[in-house]
Design goal:
It is a single chain. The chain is of the alpha/beta class. The strands form two sheets. Strands 4-3-5-6-7 form a five-stranded mixed sheet. A two-stranded antiparallel sheet has the order 1-2. A hairpin with a 5-residue loop joins strand 6 and strand 7. Helix 1 packs parallel to helix 6 and helix 3 packs across helix 9. The longest helix is centred in the first third of the chain and has 23 residues. The relative contact order is 0.16.
Length: 292
């Protein structure tokens, strides 16, 4: 048994040395896996026009008809957004979310971001009399946003775990070589949340958390050190955007499934009129013992 383990270890050592040699002469290129969402390698891609979608991920949930209009608004003053911008050099999450929403046909997207300033500017120009006759920017045309969708990133981390450490002690000298290879195998993870709010009542209708994970392969770095690794490490510079996109798609899919099965919450005594938890001397129906 001991001899068999030794032979296996020598074979692995020879294989690892061969891989290292191939990398150094430029014959082997290593890259990261694509962010995995539900076992597939696709994430948000393509385009949308009205109710039609081009090149959309086959993992994106779709609806036969829309549930209403939605505006996507992110809190750019929150800590997660500041960290996203300063640490990862990534911008707003809104464009990719809006594309996914339109591709899905589950909601109709309305503008409530910075472009809203241009929308209002055109109306101001019309009211000033500068526009040509028949431009059609008269009142009563703008579509209301039934819902507001708010994104947030609850966790985002690069290189959160590796598999090289445990291998070193398993197979002696061969394990050390193999561990060097596996030492360049790191996972990147992200977790995101989407909140859907009814604009008329301010009631939260749905919330969904999603996540995604991929692996970086940096075999050259593990075997030969960072200088020899060069460009072999896949997605070593910009994995965060792809991971976050996949995580948001996971969040959105879950939110769509939740809203498809939506049932309004009910409160005895009325929603927003005091609820069931009264206090002594209060003015609500529950406080006065009404409806008990």
């Amino acid at each position: 048994m001991k001899m068999k383990r030794l032979n296996i270890g020598k074979s692995l050592a020879r294989w690892c040395i061969y891989v290292a040699f191939m990398i150094t002469i430029g014959l082997v290129e290593c890259a990261a896996t694509e962010p995995v969402l539900g076992g597939s390698s696709t994430t948000a891609t393509g385009a949308a026009g009205g109710a039609t979608a081009e090149g959309a991920s086959n993992q994106l949930e779709r609806c036969a008809e829309s549930l209403g209009t939605v505006a996507v608004v992110e809190d750019q003053g929150s800590p997660w957004y500041g960290y996203l911008h300063s640490h990862y050099k990534l911008g707003s999450t809104v464009p990719v979310l809006r594309m996914m929403i339109q591709q899905s046909n589950c909601f109709v997207v309305v503008e409530r971001g910075r472009a809203m300033g241009n929308v209002m500017q055109e109306r101001a120009l019309e009211q000033s009399g500068e526009m040509r006759q028949g431009s059609g920017f008269h009142k009563g045309q703008m579509v209301a946003a039934d819902y507001t969708m708010s994104p947030s990133i609850t966790f985002s981390q690069k290189g959160t775990s590796g598999v090289g450490g445990a291998l070193g002690g398993l197979m002696g000298s061969a394990g050390r070589v193999f561990g060097a290879v596996a030492g360049g195998l790191k996972s990147n993870e992200a977790s995101t949340t989407l909140i859907l709010v009814d604009n008329r009542s301010s009631v939260q209708l749905a919330a969904a958390e999603g996540n995604a994970k991929n692996w970086d392969f940096n075999i050259a770095g593990g075997l030969l050190g960072s200088t020899a690794g060069g460009g072999a490490g896949g997605y070593t510079n910009t994995p965060e955007g792809k991971i976050l996109t996949a995580a948001f798609m996971d969040s959105y899919n879950k939110l769509v499934r939740a809203t498809r099965n939506y049932r309004a919450q009910t409160v005895q005594g009325g929603l927003g009129t005091g609820g069931r938890l009264g206090v002594q001397g209060g003015q609500t129906p529950a406080s006065q013992g009404i409806g008990r």
